[in-house]
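Narrative summary of target 7.
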Amino acid sequence: MIRIVKRCLILLLFATAAMAQAATLTVAMAANVSYAAKALVKAFEASHPGSCVRVILGSSGKLTAQIRNGAPYDLFLSADMGYPEALYREKIAVTKPRVYARGTLALFSPRPRDFSRGLAMLTSPDIRRIAVANPHTAPYGKAAVEALRKSGIFERVQSKIVYAESISQTVAYAMTAADIGLIAKSSLFSEKMGRFKEGRNWITVDPALYTPIDQGIVILKRGAENGACRAFYDFLLGPKAGEIFKAYGYLLP
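Modeled conformation, tokenized:
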């Protein structure tokens, strides 16, 4: 019995040591990246045994507010460059912001529609509610409003707009509370959205109608000395992650 107890104790000590050596990091990630997050983390952890990536999702604006208030994040993936640039100026981020992917917009409806008119279809009487992310906190919302203005229809459809807090909530609104939505194209590549077809349920919004959505990444103070954080940062800027981003509807910088 004593030998068994000693052996168990030794095994427990080895297990504890292995857990202590596991490299962990916490990533604050813009909601639009959530659809590619699983594939990105899986690919990274497969090539970096012992690493563990914990992802916290939210709108870029809210995540930035949390970071400023001391949230324990190592790395920040924003939906635009403005927030990481601000954190870098404030010396909360330790690396200069870099673009890891360029987001694109899609016009989406859960029911089949005639998309031949492009954004002009939003002026039709049968479309009563349009889901758009909050342009003050979500870069995709800002891009959506810009696209509507450049198309010359914003004033005509403004009363139809239902604003969501994040791009993921915009998808939910488009599925339930609205007739159609301007969403991140990346969201269409999630498993639950696979049944919706291009040209029937969605189209890509002409990128010329809005400022490119350059999505920025920075290492935060907390992750400065974390080797796993630096490794994941390098991975996200590398070719393997680039392939994954492209597969989820992003453009590469």
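Residues 1-21 have pLDDT under 50 and may be disordered.
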